[in-house]
Amino acid sequence: MSKNIKKIAVMTSGGDSPGMNAAIRSVVRTCAFHNIECVGIYRGYQGLIDGDFVEMTARSVSNIINKGGTILKSARCKLFRTPEGRNVAHKNLLKEGVEALIVIGGDGSFTGAMIFNQEYGYPVIGIPGTIDNDIYGTKYTLGYDTALNTVVDVIDKIRDTASSHNRLFFVEVMGRDAGHLALNAGVGAGAEEILIPEENLGLERLLESLERSRKSGKTSSIVVVAEGHKTGENVFGLAEYVEKNLPNYDIRVSVLGHLQRGGAPSCFDRVLASRMGVKAVESILEGKSNYMVGINNDTIVLTPLDQAIKGKSEIDADLLRVSDIMTI
Ligand code: ADP
Predict the structure, then answer these.
(1) Which atom of ligand 1 has the smallest separation from the CA of 75?
(2) Spacing, Cα 107 to ligand 1 middle (Å)
């Protein structure tokens, strides 16, 4: 540890995800371990501009590792997109004697952090928190594993009612740009079809596949649909289209929505958050800045923020194939 940093700030920003509290706890306790002061900033960049800071100690993060959401709250902040807003934010950090900032959030939050770093040379480190798992430079983001388990749990329940009534269910899950959640939860819950933003197999293929399933003796089916799927219809339009073309099916739609972001983090997310928080603080102490902490091959790694923002986290092509085979 070389850099003589005495005070670090931590915030959660943008869309919340399970595991953010575990990451806050880890950052705070790693600071305490290294005898550095830590302040929490409420409501992301908005709190940074409003000067909404709170002193954090090892004890102030007791009993939060198991809690969903974020005790520091999260927000979206238009003002931080302006140079004037960032100037106020910078002044507040200087006034508080804070020398580095850890941002737990998604690629929007990282973009803000990177611009802030470019303008003021201010040390920033990102921790990826989003259930979409759509960030380059990390195999897993905080909250993704928890959301996967939540979605699988819900689909299991939907399947119980689907099979009791010989119904076809369209289940919409989060994922505007990335299908990781839909694909993995779909395979895990045994979905018959999975529609993701990364591939467009067309409506015809969906009809063929559902018809094939019915003829092969399946009496109920689950189709998992990522929000950003590319058929050109929303999930209700999709259901209508299939109903019109396959009148034998009794169809229902279930939009899972924000329940996917809630709940106690899984053990995987708690451990990941703990590891990422330690790495974030210790990277700052080593004089590093403008990086995102991630995990690859079970090793905690750093990726430059600009790469994390610009890069694409590719969908697992092998899992797509597995999914095709499973739906025979
Ligand atoms: P996420 O971090 O989950 O992707 P957003 O995209 O909403 O969420 O970004 C969170 C916040 O980060 C925004 O409300 C804004 O304050 C800040 N931010 C995002 N993009 C920029 C940008 N280009 N310049 C400055 N701040 C930004």
Answers:
(1) 14
(2) 7
Give yes or no for residue 230 CB within 6 A of ligand 1.
Answer: no
Question: Which atom of ligand 1 approaches the CA of 46 most closely?
Answer: 16
Q: CA–CA separation, 215 vs 46, rounded Å?
A: 56
d(C-alpha 287, C-alpha 123), whole Å:
8
Query: What is the C-alpha to C-alpha distance for residues 159 and 64, in angstroms, rounded to an integer?
Result: 33
How many structural domains is the chain composed of?
2
Does some domain include residue 211? Answer: yes
48 Cα to the center of ligand 1, angstroms: 13
Q: Determine, yes or no, domain membership for 179.
A: yes
Q: Ligand 1 centroid to 13 CA: how many Å? A: 8
Query: Distance between CA atoms of 302 and 280, rounded to whole angstroms?
Result: 9
Residues 149 and 138 in one domain: no
**Tens-digit pLDDT string for the chain (328 aa):** 556 899 999 999 999 999 999 999 999 999 999 999 999 999 999 999 999 999 999 999 999 999 999 999 999 999 999 999 999 999 999 999 999 999 999 999 999 999 999 999 999 999 999 999 999 999 999 999 999 999 999 999 999 988 888 889 999 999 999 999 999 999 999 999 999 999 887 888 889 988 888 888 887 789 999 999 998 889 999 999 999 999 888 999 999 999 999 999 999 999 999 999 999 999 999 999 999 999 999 999 999 999 999 998 999 999 999 998 998 7
Q: How far apart are CA 77 and CA 115, in angstroms?
A: 14
Q: Please tell me the residue having the least CA distance from ligand 1 atom 22.
A: 112
Compute the distance between CA of residue 3 and CA of residue 285 in angstroms, rounded to an integer. Answer: 5
Q: Look-up: residue for tokens 């739609």?
A: 253
Task: Give the structural domain span for 100.
Answer: 7-143+265-310
Q: In terms of domains, do 243 and 119 share one?
A: no
Q: Which residues fall within 8 angstroms of residue 11, CB to CB, at 6 or more apart?
A: 40, 41, 42, 44, 45, 47, 48, 72, 101, 102, 103, 104, 105
